[in-house]
Amino acid sequence: MNKHAAHFWEGCAAGELRYQHCAACAALQFHARAFCLRCGGAKLEWRTAQGSGTVYALSSVARAPTDEFRALAPYVIVLVDLDEGLRMMAHGAPGLCIGDRVRAGFFVHGGRSLPRFDKS
Ligand SMILES: [Zn+2]
């Protein structure tokens, strides 16, 4: 795990959804990197999302990609448009629909705290 991703996961352990904000162009990015995907700038600041958003898309995963997630299957993966203006992927509660207003929570699996959205 690179140091940028580590900061994200430390946030999850603390109950925070962290993302990067570019000081040069104000772009937001969920997948932590050393540079801004839009302008290439290296001056990125960490911010914490409020945790509210809207379901943009979702999928039910019946065949988990790794042994770690096999015990959870079937489970729901959602793309959520956070109110701050960025899209992120996370687990979702069963029964969610596209367009639902959701709020982030966290659950521990495999020794890590993972974000999971449920209806708000
Ligand atoms: Zn930028």
Terminal CA distance = 31 Å
Strand order of the largest sheet: 4-5-6-8-7
What's the rounded overall pLDDT mean?
A: 95
Q: Tell me the overall shape.
A: globular
Number of strands: 8
Structural class: mainly beta
Number of domains: 1
Share in β-strands: over 45%
The distinct bound ligands, ions and cofactors come out as: zinc ion
Tell me the quaternary state.
single chain
The number of helical segments is: 2
- What's the gyration radius in Å? 15 Å
Query: Helix fraction?
Result: 10-25%
Largest sheet: 5 strands, mixed, barrel
Low-confidence stretches: none
The ordered H/E elements are HEEEEHEEEE
Name a few traits of the molecule.
12% helix, three-stranded antiparallel sheet, 8 strands, single chain, 120 residues, binds zinc ion, 2 helices
